[in-house]
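Fig. S4 source data, part A: sequence.
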Amino acid sequence: MAFTSTSQTDWTRSDIYHNSFLIPPNNALTAALKLSEKHGLPPYAVSEAQDGELLTCEISKDFAMIAQINIDNAGLTDKVKIIVGPAITTLSNIKSNASFDLAFIDADKQSNVEYFIQAKRLVRKGGVIIVDNVVRNGRVADPDQSDSNIDGVRKLLEYIGDDPTIEATTLGTVGEKGYDGFLYAINKPNIS
């Protein structure tokens, strides 16, 4: 079987095709994405296929304000709480009762290890920690590539590799946002 090279156009078309069957139209999400883009928020939003109930950390008051408008317009005010301030400080101040089922880390890659340590503390045993943007167009695996984002992902991988309480894998993704991937980790339950 021969494989041909694919392009960003192919990945975007694939996302649109699959989502047309799996995800009903969501006017509130479409409006939120347009408002975010209009006000210059970075394109950090996950694709339309990913959603949930959450607590989110945002360092920018302006971005938090636009996010809150989007949340309110979507009718999700009672399901989403935004905390403004540095995420590492916010996470450190949350009491550790391990009540979160899932943590999704999509922040500055240089601090991945610190975010992961806090997520592990807050996610219940058997819970999931996802770290976004860990493939970075394949550059993380290329020893000739280095920048603060790549180095932050590498440090996270080293940290997890030395942690016997975590099981993890990386899943490469392609789609409308290009070629990247995420790390999927399970906070292993205590086994007697």
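Fig. S4 source data, part B ends here. The two ends are 46 Å apart (CA to CA).
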